[in-house]
Design goal:
There is one protein chain. The protein has a domain at 29-92. The protein has helices spanning 2-21, 30-52, 55-62, 67-88. With 92 residues, the protein is mainly α. It contains four helices and no strands.
Length: 92
C-alpha cells in the first residue's frame, strides 16, 4: 500500500513540475497530472537507466524519492508532454 502512495505522490510532483517547466499550455486536471507523472517516472527511469546506467533513474521507475529520481521523472513527463503534443496536434 505504501508503494502505491509513493507512486501517486511522485507522479503528482513530477507531473506538476513537468507542466510548470514545459512551455505552452497543457490541459488536464489533477488526475491527468498524476498519470502523466507516473508514466513519466517509468519512461524517464527506463531511458535514464538504459542510456546512462544511472541508479537515480532506476529509483524513478521504482517510485522512490530522491532528487535524481524526481529529475528523471520530470524529464520523462516532459518527453511525454512533447509526444502527446505531436500526436494531438491539429493540422491547419
Amino acid at each position: 500500500m505504501g508503494n502505491i502512495i509513493a507512486w501517486l505522490v511522485l507522479g503528482l510532483i513530477a507531473g506538476a513540475l513537468a507542466k510548470l517547466f514545459y512551455p505552452g499550455t497543457q490541459g488536464g486536471g489533477i488526475v491527468s497530472t498524476i498519470i502523466l507523472g507516473i508514466l513519466g517516472a517509468v519512461v524517464g527511469g527506463y531511458l535514464g537507466q538504459t542510456l546512462l546506467g544511472s541508479g537515480s533513474a532506476a529509483a524513478a521507475s521504482a517510485g522512490a524519492f530522491s532528487l535524481g529520481s524526481i529529475l528523471f521523472a520530470v524529464l520523462g513527463a516532459m518527453l511525454l508532454i512533447f509526444i502527446w503534443g505531436l500526436v494531438t496536434r491539429r493540422s491547419a
